[in-house]
Design goal:
Length: 74
């Protein structure tokens, strides 16, 4: 589970925000199978009901391969 620590001025679009925050440089599509919020909305490569992160909310993320570090800039 990862908290989105960006502020209201941060890029909140899931793929671009995650691509920027990932330290492995593999990209969101290659790193995660699913990203889900507590309301049941989700993002996958092929279908998504979750488009944007909300500052201060937490997200469950299923990693495809080896663990990675996510670092959202302030």
């Amino acid at each position: 589970m990862v908290g989105f620590t960006g502020d209201i001025n941060a890029d909140t679009e899931i793929v671009s925000a995650m691509d920027f925050a990932l330290t492995n440089a593999a990209g969101t599509v290659n790193t995660f199978s699913i990203i889900k919020n507590v309301a049941g909305q989700f993002w996958t490569e092929h279908i998504s009901s979750l488009i944007n992160f909300v500052p201060g909310e937490a997200y469950m993320m299923y990693v495809n391969a080896s663990p990675t570090i996510v670092n959202f800039p302030q």
